[in-house]
Amino acid sequence: MSLTRADWIVLICLLAVQPWLYTHFWNGHSGVADHAVITALGQDTQELSLRHDQQINISGPLGDSLLEIQGGRLRFRDSPCHGKQCIHSGWLSHAGDFAACLPNRVSVTLVGAATRYDAVNY
Amino acid sequence: MQLTPTAEDHRIAWLAALAIVIHIAESALPSPLPGIKPGLANVVTVAVLVRYGWRTAAWVALLRVLVGSLLLGTFLSPTFILSAGGALSSIIMLGLARRLPGRGLGPIGYSALAAQAHMAGQFGLAYALFIPHIALLNLLPILMSAALLFGVLSGIIAATMLKGLATATPGSNAQLLH
How far apart, in whole angstroms, are the C-alpha atoms of residue A31 and residue B78? Predict the structure, then answer.
């Protein structure tokens, strides 16, 4: 199993590239979120820009869920549900991030500018 | 008019058949993650490259993808397009790697490079054509590392195979050596 000098150079270069791949692609830059799409039972879907800080009440079967937008991020601040899973989801900031309050039938998805497809199926 | 196949045609056919068998056997293996598989058919490509040159290797690799897809029923499906894109990328990379000065690369270097090119090309194609979702990029580092690992392993297998071929008596594998 003799490796030539070129083999070694190629292998070392390829090995050196691997950590770069991880730091480059895993730094959480999975798309800057541009706006939030809010879905609630029995209501039209609404889109909210993340550029303006605000708090908004979304009414559901249990009562009002309070969403807070601040500095390009969004979170469930309060919700009348039992488990508070939605609040524990914390801040959403990347395109594709998702949180829902299932008992109150409210869900939020963050969307970036470049979303072209919801899903592709074959 | 009659076409008379040359010795090289026979050789390509035999080697492509070998690669196709490996390709199909491997497609039955379960994969831990979509996109990761050992790529053992590339052992044949690399061994052919070292022994018979780039032209024969390109024929063998592309015939394998074509015939493999016909036999598996994936011809012209996304699977086929990704497979062909990967094979094309790795063949182009091997062509470039052949031009390195000096003693050049051995099977392990070729195989590692080809595996990386295969994965990069395939991933680029998948991202551009089928799943243009930014989250897909999170998979890329894992896929590239897996490709490097399997590329080196395939290279070791190819090196062992070439050593075996070099010491084999000409009569025992007449078809391959022709």
Answer: 26
